[in-house]
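wait is this the right file?? whatever heres the structure
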């Protein structure tokens, strides 16, 4: 009897071990991989596809998958950095014809951010697939929001192919305050908001962030939004991107540090643009007590930025592991304290209005700048974020499609 009991236990343990290994090995598959869920929706329709270089299925671009499946792509719409993801940050991009497919490409990061009615006249349904990185100041969530506004205003169904958020396993940072709305922050969300782009779409709709006149909103109240979910993903997942989402986020180290070091774009220091490690090389010529140095210069995707050709001393974050579940606020405090001319640390706008400072637009308020100047501790700065974060977290839960991290 004892041997039988031991045998049963051993069998159960082996089965549990095998099941655990099977679960661990199951790959995370973005929404684009779930072709059986969305190809039937697109069949016999003229499709307007919003995409860039990140929309791949096993290394094959979504455009190729759709055309091979007999889907008619009428137009391609593109965000910041363009279809190939090689244009500079903020570089305006013109419309063109795709050399490979002959499909018209309409830039939504140039003369306009939103498709107009003429762009959508010959389109039956819209499709969105772009990899986001989960920070408020990364512009692709606003590209989605503009696209949603055009879809709703013109009553065109929209299908969003969801993608995992590489920073979707935590929430941190100050929540954007309304006066600081800009191209790097449209809505009251924290710096790191812990949602996939599909979940963000649901929140933008549910919280009435989609802008349109009341007559059209009433007329198109039954507008169709479909989210094709990721497979084997939840908010505890650590997802590794297989395609760089933009030229200055070349690897996962930069993507993880970006949530912290994007704030450096609002200062006179180099955030590493013009090097192979943007957002992981941080420095300035005047910080000469640091041994590490780098010299930024023009390169694809970063032809123009700060301090090109000047030797900068500072921090090599490729050698430092980023925090796993928070912004490294202590590092920002250290960088400010290390800068010798503190009155010129923040990029100064033409007007001294707090809303004009780029640092404040990135932070989402004027408070963080003043806290850094005043030498407020990390603990007290974080304490000042808590009320806003608590309100956001309660709101966020209504729109989650995946198991949360707590």
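ok assuming it is, sequence goes like this
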């Amino acid at each position: 009897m004892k041997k039988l009991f031991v045998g049963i236990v051993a069998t159960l343990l082996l089965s549990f071990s095998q099941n655990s290994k099977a679960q661990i090995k199951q790959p995370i598959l973005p929404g684009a991989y779930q072709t059986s869920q969305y190809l039937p929706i697109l069949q016999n329709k003229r499709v307007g596809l919003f995409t860039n270089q990140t929309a791949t299925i096993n290394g094959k671009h979504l455009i190729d998958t759709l055309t091979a499946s007999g889907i008619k792509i009428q137009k391609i719409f593109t965000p910041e950095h363009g279809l190939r993801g090689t244009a500079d940050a903020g570089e305006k991009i013109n419309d063109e014809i795709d050399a490979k497919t002959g499909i018209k490409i309409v830039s939504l990061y140039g003369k306009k951010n939103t498709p107009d009615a003429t762009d959508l006249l010959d389109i039956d349904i819209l499709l969105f697939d772009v990899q986001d990185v989960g920070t408020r100041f990364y512009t692709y969530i606003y590209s989605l929001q503009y696209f949603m506004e055009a879809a709703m205003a013109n009553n065109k169904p929209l299908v969003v192919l969801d993608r995992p958020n590489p920073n979707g396993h935590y929430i941190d940072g100050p929540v954007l305050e309304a006066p600081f709305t800009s191209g790097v922050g449209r809505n009251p969300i924290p710096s790191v908001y812990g949602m996939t782009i599909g979940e963000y779409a649901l929140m933008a709709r549910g919280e009435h962030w989609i802008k349109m006149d009341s007559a059209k909103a009433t007329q198109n109240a039954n507008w169709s939004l479909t989210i094709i979910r990721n497979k084997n993903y939840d908010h505890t997942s650590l997802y590794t991107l297989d395609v760089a989402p933009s030229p200055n986020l070349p690897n996962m180290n930069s993507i993880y540090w970006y949530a912290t070091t994007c704030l450096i774009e609002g200062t006179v220091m180099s955030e590493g643009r013009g090097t192979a490690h943007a957002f992981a090389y941080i420095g300035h010529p005047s910080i000469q007590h640091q041994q590490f140095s780098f010299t930024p210069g023009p390169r694809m995707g970063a032809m123009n930025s700060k301090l090109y050709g000047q030797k900068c001393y500072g921090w090599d974050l490729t050698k430092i592991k980023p925090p796993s579940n928070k912004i490294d606020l202590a590092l920002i405090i250290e960088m400010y304290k290390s800068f010798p001319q503190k009155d010129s640390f923040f990029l100064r706008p033409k007007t001294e209005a707090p809303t004009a400072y780029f640092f404040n637009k990135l932070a989402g308020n004027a408070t963080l700048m003043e806290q850094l100047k005043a030498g407020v501790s990390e603990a007290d700065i974080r304490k000042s974020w808590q009320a806003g974060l608590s309100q956001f977290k309660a709101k966020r839960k209504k729109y989650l499609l995946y198991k949360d991290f707590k």
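The CA atoms of residues 26 and 253 lie 24 Å apart. so i think its the right one actually
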